[in-house]
Each structure stands twice: as C-alpha cells, then as structure tokens.
C-alpha cells in the first residue's frame, strides 16, 4: 500500500498526469485519474468503471474466440485446398492414363478399317470410309480430353491464336443414315458456304 501512496505522491510532486485501474476485493473496478491544475495544486478523480471493464473483458474474450475460430477455419480451408489439389492431380493422372489407354484400341480399329478398305468391294468402301471417320471423330474427342488433362496439370500453351475455320464433321445424315431410316427419321443438313470474316 505504501508503494502506491509514494507513487501517487511522486506524480503530484512532479506535476505528472497519471491514470490506472484497480479491481477491488468486492469485484468493483475503480479508475484513478490524476493531474496538475492550471493555478497550482493537483486533482485526483476516482471513477467506478466496473461495467465498462466488464464489457471490455467480454469484448476481449469474444475477440479471442473469433481469432481462434478464424485460425481454425483457415486450417480447415488449407486442408480442404490441399485435398482438392491432390484430387485434381489424381483426376489429371486418371484422364491422361484413360485417354492414352482408350486411344490404343482406336488406333487398332483404324488399322483394321484401312485393311478393310483395301479388300472391300466398291459398295462397301463408302461404309468403311464412314466407319473410319467415326473412329477419327472419337480419337479427336479423346485427344481433347487428354489436352484438358494437360491444361489441368499446368502444361500446354494457352496463348490466344488465330485459326482458320475447319469443317468439324461430315453431314450427320451421311454419318448414320441407316439409323435414321430404320426409325422413320429424315434429316436435312445444309452447310453455310459463306467465308468466315
């Protein structure tokens, strides 16, 4: 107690401003503010700030809880992002492997159609050509899938370029006429021959 009295007396003698809070044994918080007066002397005020101290303590606890929750959510999001990155890598590896494995039988089918084309009679040549075009279209789709997996993995060139328009497919009514006729479906396709700007 004597230490605190001497401390306050020291502030008065030096004309220093002081302010502090102390919690009493009954739980009340008292704020003491002291300072010199303009005409000489020193004034000390004692203010009961129990309610303000309770609110401040509650805010500090709430802030600590929020910081803890933010840190926990940040850890959870980091873990989720890590798992997502691993899943994306697994998907990319699967797409690359599946695309490669599926392309092999298509290569064999193209070799088979090439052999058929050499042996087939003229009426069958048209059918063989259509089968070959269908295999080429399936290969193109699988290669696109493989390209997507490369892009997912961060590979490949993604810069913008100009390309000349190309014919995407033959007329659908020529690709599968037997299927349509067998079901009573007629088709009529007309290509737009205008040049692209």
Itemize the secondary structure elements and their pairings.
Blueprint: H1 2-14, E1 18-23, E2 29-36, E3 42-48, H2 50-119, H3 122-152, H4 172-175, H5 177-182
Antiparallel strand pairs: 1-2, 2-3
Description:
With 197 residues, this protein is mainly alpha-helical. Helix content is 63%, strand content 11%. It has five helices and three strands, in the order H-E-E-E-H-H-H-H. It has helices at 2-14, 50-119, 122-152, 172-175, 177-182; strands at residues 18-23, 29-36, 42-48. Helix 2 packs antiparallel against helix 3. It is rod-shaped, with a radius of gyration of 42 Å. The relative contact order is 0.06.
Spans of at least 5 consecutive residues whose pLDDT stays below 50 are: none
Distance between the amino and carboxyl termini:
94 Å
Count of individual helical segments = 5
- Provide the β-strand percentage band: 5-15%
Helix vs. strand class: mainly alpha
Written as H for each helix and E for each strand, in order along the chain, the element string is: HEEEHHHH
The counted number of beta strands is 3
**Judging from the principal axes of the Cα atoms, what is the shape?**
rod-shaped
Overall mean confidence score, pLDDT: 78
Q: What is the share of helical residues?
A: 55-70%
Main-sheet strand order equals: 1-2-3
Radius of gyration: 42 Å
State the major sheet.
3 strands, antiparallel
């Amino acid at each position: 107690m004597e230490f605190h009295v001497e401390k306050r007396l020291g502030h008065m003698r030096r004309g220093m401003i002081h302010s502090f809070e102390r919690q009493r044994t009954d739980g009340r918080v008292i704020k003491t503010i002291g300072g010199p007066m303009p005409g000489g002397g020193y004034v000390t005020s004692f203010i009961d700030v129990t309610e303000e101290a309770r609110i401040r303590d509650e805010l500090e606890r709430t802030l600590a809880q929020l910081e803890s929750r933010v840190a926990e959510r940040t850890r959870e999001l980091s873990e989720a992002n890590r798992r997502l990155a691993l899943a994306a890598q697994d998907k990319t590896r699967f797409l690359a492997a599946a695309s490669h494995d599926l392309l092999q039988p298509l290569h064999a089918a193209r070799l088979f159609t090439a052999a058929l084309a050499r042996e087939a009679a003229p009426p069958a040549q048209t059918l063989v050509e259509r089968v070959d075009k269908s295999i080429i279209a399936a290969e193109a789709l699988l290669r696109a899938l493989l390209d997507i997996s490369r892009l997912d993995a961060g590979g490949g060139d993604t810069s913008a370029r100009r390309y000349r328009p190309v014919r995407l497919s033959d007329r659908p009514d020529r690709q599968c006429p037997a299927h349509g006729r067998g079901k009573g479906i007629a088709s009529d396709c007309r290509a737009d021959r205008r040049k692209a700007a």
